[in-house]
From TrEMBL:
<keyword id="KW-0812">Transmembrane</keyword>
<keyword id="KW-0472">Membrane</keyword>
<keyword id="KW-1133">Transmembrane helix</keyword>
<keyword id="KW-1003">Cell membrane</keyword>
<feature type="transmembrane region" description="Helical">
    <location>
        <begin position="6"/>
        <end position="28"/>
    </location>
</feature>
<dbReference type="Pfam" id="PF04066">
    <property type="entry name" value="MrpF_PhaF"/>
</dbReference>
<protein>
    <recommendedName>
        <fullName>Cation:proton antiporter</fullName>
    </recommendedName>
</protein>
<keyword id="KW-0813">Transport</keyword>
<feature type="transmembrane region" description="Helical">
    <location>
        <begin position="65"/>
        <end position="89"/>
    </location>
</feature>
<comment type="similarity">
    <text>Belongs to the CPA3 antiporters (TC 2.A.63) subunit F family.</text>
</comment>
<feature type="region of interest" description="Disordered">
    <location>
        <begin position="118"/>
        <end position="161"/>
    </location>
</feature>
<feature type="transmembrane region" description="Helical">
    <location>
        <begin position="40"/>
        <end position="59"/>
    </location>
</feature>
<dbReference type="GO" id="GO:0005886">
    <property type="term" value="C:plasma membrane"/>
</dbReference>
<dbReference type="InterPro" id="IPR007208">
    <property type="entry name" value="MrpF/PhaF-like"/>
</dbReference>
<dbReference type="GO" id="GO:0015385">
    <property type="term" value="F:sodium:proton antiporter activity"/>
</dbReference>
Length: 161
């Protein structure tokens, strides 16, 4: 066996040992991750470790088909990570919308504010001028504003043809 083949064999063994250690640490993080985003990140790391395993096995055996499989796994892993991220984002918006006093958008500023601070910020803004600035029933429309769900005042069937 030549020195280059021995060096390649040693490099493959070291790479497999390092990938095995990172695989075990990633599995530990998936199981014991404190939050859901930590677990998603650990799953993404598992995909990267699997790609590394496939690439090292492709180098060791000499089959180039393994590299094609590694590329396909990388694409699928990316799509899975994006799907998990969208799931986490949607889950956060649903939890935020349960409390009607907080804004429905998830931002760092919205999470830093308490619901009372959010309503006080909304109260500081002056009302916009326009048809909504007049009290209901005072605009000459018979008590019916253009955005109201209440039917106009008057006798039933009057004024509708």
């Amino acid at each position: 066996m030549s020195s280059s083949a021995a060096f390649l064999d040693l490099a493959v063994q070291i790479a497999l040992a390092m990938l095995s250690a990172s695989f075990l640490l990633s599995v530990f993080k998936v199981i014991h991750g404190p939050t859901l985003p930590d677990r998603v990140l650990a799953l993404d790391m598992l995909v990267a470790v699997a790609i590394g395993f496939i690439a090292v096995l492709g180098i060791k055996t000499g089959y180039t088909l393994y590299l094609d499989v590694a590329i396909a796994l990388g694409l699928v892993g990316f799509l899975a990570t994006v799907a998990f991220a969208r799931f986490i984002l949607a889950r956060g918006q649903i939890e935020t919308r349960r409390d009607t006093r907080t804004p429905p958008l998830i931002t760092a500023e919205a999470h830093a504010l308490t619901p009372d601070a959010v309503t006080s910020r909304i109260d500081l803004d002056p009302p916009a001028p326009g048809p909504r600035a007049t009290p209901p029933g005072k605009s000459g429309t018979g008590g019916h504003e253009p955005g109201d769900n209440a039917p106009p005042k008057g006798k039933p069937g009057e004024g509708r043809r």
